[in-house]
Design goal:
Largest sheet: none
Distance between the termini: 46 Å
Shape: elongated
Strand content: under 5%
Number of helices: 9
Oligomer: single chain
Number of strands: 0
Structural class: mainly alpha
Radius of gyration: 27 Å
Mean pLDDT: 78
Length: 229
C-alpha cells in the first residue's frame, strides 16, 4: 500500500470519528424543543457525514488490499519471475539429490557434470530477484497489507520450494554481509510453514513419489466422480 493511500485512510477515519463525536455532543447539549431544530439538524448532518466517511475509509482499506493481491499475482506471473523460479527449482533439486551449495568449489563445473544448465552467476542473479520480490511481499504481509489467504493454493508450497532453493544463498549473505538479509522473506516462509503444515506435508509426499506413481495419482484424481457423471 502506498504511503499516500495509507495517510488518506487514516485522515478519513479521524475525520469520520470526529464528525460522529461532534454530532453526538450537539445532540446531548441542546434542549429538545422547536427552537433548537437547527442545532439538531446540524448534529444529524455531522453524524451522517461521519458515518459516510467511516464507510469510505473501510472501503479504501479493502480496495487497497485487493490491489495488493492483484499486483502480487500479476507480477509473480511475468516471464522474468517464472524463468527465475524455474532455475531456482532446478538448483533445489540438485541440492536435494547431490548435496551441493553455493559455496561448493568449482560450482559451475559441478553443476554442469550433474546435468545443470546454469552458472553460479546466473543463479545469484535470479536468486537476488526472487529474494527481493518476496522480501517486499513478506513485509507487506507482516503489516497486514497482504492477506494470508493468497497462499492457500499452490502458491504457498511454491514459496516454500523457492525458499529452500535459495536458503544457502540467504545464509551466506547473512553470515558474511548483512545479518538481517531477507528477514521478511524468512518471516513469510516460516508463517506459511506453520499455517499450511498439513498441506505442505502432502505436497512433499507427492513430490517424493517416483514418476510412475505420480502419474497414477494424477490419473486417479482426474477420474470422474458420481457427481461429475
Amino acid at each position: 500500500m502506498k504511503r499516500s493511500t495509507k495517510n488518506t485512510i487514516i485522515f478519513s477515519t479521524i475525520t469520520a470519528v470526529s464528525s460522529i463525536i461532534l454530532g453526538v455532543l450537539i445532540f446531548l447539549m441542546i434542549k429538545f424543543d422547536s427552537a433548537d431544530m437547527i442545532n439538531r439538524i446540524v448534529g444529524a448532518i455531522a453524524i451522517i457525514t461521519g458515518l459516510s466517511s467511516l464507510i469510505m475509509g473501510i472501503s479504501s482499506i479493502f480496495s487497497a488490499t485487493l490491489d495488493n493481491v492483484r499486483e502480487y499475482f500479476y507480477t509473480g506471473d511475468t516471464v522474468e519471475h517464472s524463468s527465475a523460479r524455474k532455475l531456482i527449482y532446478s538448483y533445489r533439486d540438485l541440492k536435494m539429490t547431490n548435496g551441493i551449495s553455493i559455496e561448493t568449489e568449482n560450482f559451475n563445473d559441478v553443476v554442469k557434470n550433474l546435468g545443470g544448465d546454469f552458472t553460479k552467476e546466473e543463479l545469484e542473479k535470479v536468486a537476488s530477484l526472487e529474494i527481493n520480490f518476496f522480501q517486499m511481499w513478506g513485509l507487506l504481509q507482516s503489516k497486514h497489507y497482504l492477506p494470508m489467504w493468497v497462499f492457500d493454493t499452490a502458491s504457498g508450497y511454491s514459496i516454500v520450494k523457492l525458499f529452500e532453493g535459495v536458503q544457502d544463498i540467504i545464509e551466506y549473505k547473512r553470515k558474511y554481509h548483512n545479518p538481517n538479509y531477507a528477514d521478511q522473506f524468512i518471516f513469510l516462509y516460516k508463517k506459511i510453514l506453520k499455517r499450511y503444515s498439513k498441506e505442505i506435508s502432502e505436497c512433499r509426499l507427492i513430490e517424493q513419489q517416483p514418476k510412475a506413481e505420480k502419474d497414477i495419482t494424477k490419473n486417479e484424481s482426474a477420474k470422474p466422480t458420481k457427481t461429475d457423471i
